[in-house]
Amino acid sequence: MSVIGIDFGNDSSYVAVAKAGGIETIANDYSLRATPSFVAFAGRNRVLGVAAKNQQVTNMNNTIGNFKELLGRKFDDPRAQEELRSLPYHTEALQDGGIGIRVNYLDEEHVFSPEQITAMLFTKLKEDAFKELKTQINDCVITVPSYFTNAQRQALLDAANISGLNVLRLMNETTATALSYGFYKQDLPAPEEKPRNVIFVDCGHASLQVSACAFHKGNLKMLASCSDSVGGRDFDLVLATHFNKEFQTKYKIDASSKKRAFLRLMAEVEKLKKNMSANSTKLPLNIECFMNEIDVHSSMQRSEMEELSSHLFKRIETTMRKLLLDSKLALEEIHSVEIVGGSSRIPAIKHLIEQIFGKPASTTLNQDEAVSRGAALQCAILSPAVRVREFSCTDVQAYPVLISWTDTDGPHEMKVFEQYHAAPFCRLLTVHRKEPMTIKVHYEPNSIPYPDPFIGTYHVKGIKPDANGEAQEVKVKVRINNNGIITVSSATMYERKESEEPSSPTPTSNGDQQKTGDANQSSPQGDESGKVGEPMDIQE
């Protein structure tokens, strides 16, 4: 039995496996380590990965890509609508308000959810790993962007369950990168010494994530993580828009009027962008039979691209400066700045890093495979099937979390987790109640990049007054689990013995970093002197 780490990217995915000799990235059936995150439907066939991406232009309406950002989102979400406008395939609202993707499959119209499409891709990655390793694939760790919310993380878990994967942990991409950096370092400071602070800049296809991490020997602690939805595809769009305007003037053709032509233009400017990262000279752009049998020609220099994309670089700079502020690190406390992700190869981004952090961008990590390798390491640490030395990872909760409930004296609201609170973590809250209660959990308004901060509603049943008709003490446990998912995991009512004096009504809270049990498990406080704990039923 093997343990694998999956880096599920917006454009391509990687699978790494933990072996006796170390971590190895698996090649797919095309001998490529990167498997495009594409699913296509052609007649009676379902095509996945490289073969699916190859037919993106010819089978545009039935080739599904860029679906990662649609997971767990509502159709009328403004950010989701922004994503949907740029997609060539047909989407629609589902009955539950989610996003449906309409395709022609088995000569019939089918509507799939992003979770189902993701599950199809995971099945392909699982099969590739099985072919390479010749052994059953059970346990895995899947990486998620640090900015993913509860709903998005749950949707990704659902997709993994559909594909038959046992997910030991959903791990933030920033934390996986930090683990792949720190695990093999022999010169990390001892626990009693000052930590080694490292900044990680991950600029991928659809997002930018910048994080700060403190390392000690045998453990890492994330300090802060900032993100923005700017990535390689935004640079492609800027270039494609520029060349389209040029072609309108020069050749009297408008690529934006035809989805297929614009897809071809996006593919060509992506190649040009990659070449410009390595060359500062003027480079040509040639597309044969582009539209109306017309061949188009143009050229561009790196400096022109940087000028056109200045607004994107400004956003990247803002995100980096916010990270520096949030992490509370002085420039002299930063040991190094590591870069990962395909788009971090753009020279202007490296220049920004040096300008902001005062240190050159370090490339000691494999920019494409670092995330999957970190996930495979985490899977090896968690799985009983593999023996590996321990390395502790303390993650952070990206957004502040609040709970609210209504009492006889009106509504109450309490912040249970601050931004960048350690995770996983449990917090015990004490309330005094006579009757069942409804707890609403939500993110702090305006703290997340989505309009709806709602996480979930929990109904705590079985609360009743004591023999004297007084309110009873109820301890509610709110938990961030290993997957970064926030739940109300248990509620316990405490009845005082008659010999005991009434307890103080002051609410208390305390944290416990150990993983707790299921929803109806008694609180660890249940053996307090003079109290009898009674677990409550919780309905989500």
How big a fraction of the residues is strand? 35-45%
Helicity, in percent? 25-40%
Q: Supply Rg.
A: 26 Å
Number of strands: 31
**Number of domains as seen in the coordinates:** 3
Give the mean pLDDT: 90
Main sheet makeup? 7 strands, mixed
CATH class of the largest domain: Alpha Beta
Shape: globular
Q: Which second-level CATH architecture of the largest domain applies? A: 2-Layer Sandwich
Strand order of the largest sheet: 19-18-13-14-15-20-23
The CATH topology name of the largest domain reads Nucleotidyltransferase, domain 5
SS element count, helices: 11
Task: Please give a structural write-up.
The protein is of the alpha+beta class. The chain folds into three domains: 2-228 and 309-393, Nucleotidyltransferase, domain 5, CATH 3.30.420; 231-306, Alpha-Beta Complex (Actin, Chain A, domain 4), CATH 3.90.640.10; 398-496 and 531-537, Sandwich (Substrate Binding Domain Of DNAk, Chain A, domain 1). 27% of the residues lie in helices and 36% in strands. The model is unreliable at 499-530 (pLDDT under 50).
Task: Lay out the secondary structure.
Layout: E1 2-7, E2 12-19, E3 22-25, E4 35-36, E5 39-42, E6 45-48, H1 50-54, E7 63-64, H2 78-85, E8 90-93, E9 99-105, E10 108-112, H3 114-133, E11 137-144, H4 150-162, E12 166-172, H5 173-182, E13 196-203, E14 208-216, E15 219-228, H6 232-251, H7 259-278, E16 283-291, E17 294-300, H8 302-308, H9 310-327, E18 334-340, H10 347-357, E19 361-362, H11 370-382, E20 392-397, E21 401-407, E22 410-417, E23 421-423, E24 425-433, E25 437-443, E26 454-461, E27 472-480, E28 486-496, E29 509-512, E30 531-535, E31 537-539
Parallel strand pairs: 1-11, 11-12, 13-18, 15-20, 18-19
Antiparallel strand pairs: 1-2, 2-3, 2-4, 5-6, 5-7, 8-9, 9-10, 13-14, 14-15, 16-17, 20-23, 21-22, 21-25, 24-27, 24-29, 25-26, 26-31, 27-28, 28-30
